Amino acid sequence: MEVMSHLVHWVFLAVYMYELNAELISHLHPPEQEISTDSCVFPFVYADGFHYSCISLHSDYDWCSLDFQFQGRWRYCTAQDPPKCIFPFQFKQKLIKKCTKEGYILNRSWCSLTENYNQDGKWKQCSPNNF
Length: 131
Known about the structure:
The longest helix is centred in the N-terminal third of the chain and has 17 residues, at 2-18. 21% of the residues lie in helices and 18% in strands. The protein is α+β, with helices and mostly antiparallel strands.
């Protein structure tokens, strides 16, 4: 318990000295959270953008908002959380039948959330099991 007390003091000191965003710190070392049975809301608005799937923005783990406009209510995502990839989907002049790295500047696998990515532009990163 003493170690946790010291950690809390260091975090508060870092926030004070470096004016760090407390929201960033809370996501990096999240507090114990009760398991939420509330459903993720897709799309949701966070950090001036629409998100159509779980995100890891400001966090080490994927999470989602429980409200359309993020208001601080969130939960960690699971493999059962929607939305699912849609296969096949249209990307540029190709019909894509599985997760692809094509066109992603970070060279990560992604998929479309609709049958026509060119038209809708809705996508998510693929998980190891292509959920």
